[in-house]
Amino acid sequence: MGQELLSQLSEALKSVIGYIYPNEIELHWGLLIVLYPYITGLVAGAFILASLERVFKVKEIQPTYRLSLLTALAFLLVAPLPLLAHLGHPERAFEIFLTPHLQSAMAMFGFVYVWYLSVVLLLEIWFDYRGDMVVWSAPGRGWRRVLYSIFTLGVRSTSQEALRFDERAGRFITIIGIPSAFLLHGYVGFIFGSVKANPWWSSVLMPVVFLFSAIVSGIALVMVIYMVSSWTRRHPIDMRCLDKLGQFLFYTLVLDVSLELLDFVHRLYEAEESIDILGQMIQSRLFVPLVVVQLLLGTVVPLISLGLLQGFRPRDAIRKSLYFASGILLLVAIFFMRWNVVIGGQLFSKSLRGLTTYKIGIAGIEGAGTAALLAVLPFIILLVLIKLLPPWPKREGQDILGPK
Amino acid sequence: MRRREFLKNLASVGPAIGLLAAGSKLNGYLYAAETEKQAQSVRLYGMGIDVDVCIGCGRCAVACKKENHVPQDPFFYRTWVERYVFSVDGELRVDSPNGGAEAFPPSGVPEKEKMKAYYVPKLCNQCSKPPCVQVCPVGATFQTKDGVVLIDPDYCIGCRYCIQACPYGARYLHPQRRVADKCTFCYHRIVRNMKPACVEVCPTSARIFGEPRKSNTPLWEFMRKHRLQVLKPNLRTEPKVYYNGIDSEVR
Amino acid sequence: MPAQVRRLIVLFAVAVAGFLIVRHFLLPESFGLHGHYRAKAVDLAASQAFEYAGHLACPECHEEVAALKSPSKHAEVACEACHGPSMSHVSDPAQNKPELPRARDRCGLCHYYEASRPAGFPQVDPARHGARAECVTCHNPHSPEMVQ
Prior knowledge:
The complex is a heterotrimer of chains A (404), B (251) and C (148). Chain A is mostly helical and 404 residues long. Chain A has helices spanning 2-14, 31-54, 65-78, 80-86, 95-98, 108-136, 143-151, 160-193, 206-233, 239-270, 275-283, 287-311, 316-342, 344-347, 368-388, and strands at residues 17-18, 354-355. Chain A contains 15 helices and two strands. The N and C termini of chain A lie far apart (54 Å). In chain B, a hairpin with a 4-residue loop joins strand 2 and strand 3 (92-95). Chain B has a domain at 45-75 and 123-251: Alpha-Beta Plaits. The longest helix of chain B is centred in the first third of the chain and has 38 residues, at 2-39. Chain B has helices spanning 2-39, 59-68, 131-135, 161-165, 187-190, 197-201, 218-225, and strands at 46-50, 79-87, 92-95, 114-123, 141-143, 149-151, 172-173, 180-181, 207-210, 241-244. Chain C has 148 residues and is mainly alpha-helical. Chain C folds into two domains: 3-46, no CATH class; 58-147, no CATH class. Classes of the chains: A mainly alpha (404), B alpha+beta (251), C mainly alpha (148). At the A-B interface, helix 1 and helix 5 of A face strand 3, helix 3, helix 4 and strand 7 of B.
């Protein structure tokens, strides 16, 4: 394993342009660290979407409410895995909970993750599903009875009062959940934005840009999952819901683009000492991921297609295709936005005199294989969650208890 | 009524004091290193680098690797030497082949076109306000009372945030131990009044080790005699490695 | 208090208590004594073994060489700069011998002409100086200005 690293580094050394500090030949935060903010971004974004319905009473997107929550949970469960895989000593990871260094943004991970998982997401899901779980745990349903009984935590009342409390508590949790979601993903942006040593990362806008692109990716994800699950269930897509999702997606995208444009213009205008090497980097190493994929394919194209759909209303089939395509493009774009930030920040030397390369391996714990596995895993978990906690209203004959 | 009010207020002082005590314990936890430093006037180490006399032989880079068992591969360095070659036409070429460990081959700039050139030894600057210590999530890297930034290899989780946060490229990840590593000013030597290995073997005394605040020592004389620069002063890391004879071009 | 809140409070209290108990056992002993780190780590760093013995070690046994070297041009050049780390030699002089570099290129590390070296530093053109013989043929490394 050590040998592979050494030969990788030898290769990389040959592709260096200009001068880099000798220690910079090893790129430290690779694909796995690109994946982590992407995943927590999806979590935050999906949750914000759910909160739009719950707190801001956007009724049209109700069909996606529970789906958003389950999606957020599935991805949140996977989120620590790329970090664990990346650590030099994953068996010491618990030290973040033991002795968090409060001056470090990264130390926030322990608190924020546990807070968000337990107090926000799990609690909200619990309050929303508790009534249903009581019903599903009724006698005569085998092992499910035991499982759902446990999930209800023994609180079995389905009185109007209890259900009303569930509703109010859920709403309260969602309200707390919104700034918590901001924190969950914002702190990651701050991890990068507060590194004064790195002019590509160091920016006040970094946490904000991360957050808004997270919301874009979250909405896009829920939209795509909603469409795919409707197709697999042979359930008609609620076009009012889809149009509303598309609308939110469009306006969030506009906000996100404005922020990134602001950062870009500001950088170009101030033109401080790092501008030359950064410009070189964008024109060479980052040209395809940034200009072609993130900007053109991932931003301009969805902006146009979603924007057109705000003004024009072609028939359902066309709208569905456009929404689906835009959703996929945006998911790819936001992944590349993370890539361009994380990898981009390491492709140029802190001496401001050179550029290096990053080659992803296929095998090995930091390779594309692991990343692909970690990308697929949340969907598998989501399938399990959907089976256990169906997020759609049952067919006629069976109604569900629970806040609506 | 007033007496009752007064007593009630007194009663709330207790928990307030408790909170304050807890808070100051937290504070003590957070800032113990700084208050320790102020409390004891212990040694404070620093290093001077006289670029005017550095000949780029690379003995320092070699000695450091041997003293501290740094992997010999050309990807990991606790210290290295850079060469700056200025051409007449305004071009600047910087290089550091294998960190300078085998000295330097010809720069490729013809003699006639060379305006000036010099070598710059680099190492951890042992900053007084180290950004690497700030970002460590678990407390595996820290600053000692005598001003040296150390790494705890048994506690480091290998997240590499410190490596990202160092503006000088001084840190690397040890390929076998999978923890962060960097120059320690040869802490094990200096606490026994020996010199760091790089200082020991420098044939021209380009590296001067000592205590910047202790008058009438070689380092003090060096600092008194020369106009000094530190690297990237705008980042306010307050490095304790002081250079004589570099241009503003040196990053 | 609604049943939900009661149940949740109990659960959280148990979780927090559990965490604090586990933390008590896992927290390293010396952590926090001097700052946010294990105080033991300072001792660990300070106890690293030496590879280089330092320039004061050699004259203790090698008096003659030291006497030859100290008025010479190489007075400030540490013995170990050329002979390499010699702590093991100090520990067991008979068993462990330091390097005795004789190759031309070893002297050349400092003395071959390289344009970036400061003016005035003694340098030679390797192609023209010494006809590819070992430098030590003419120069005593401990008193290099003497030329045979």
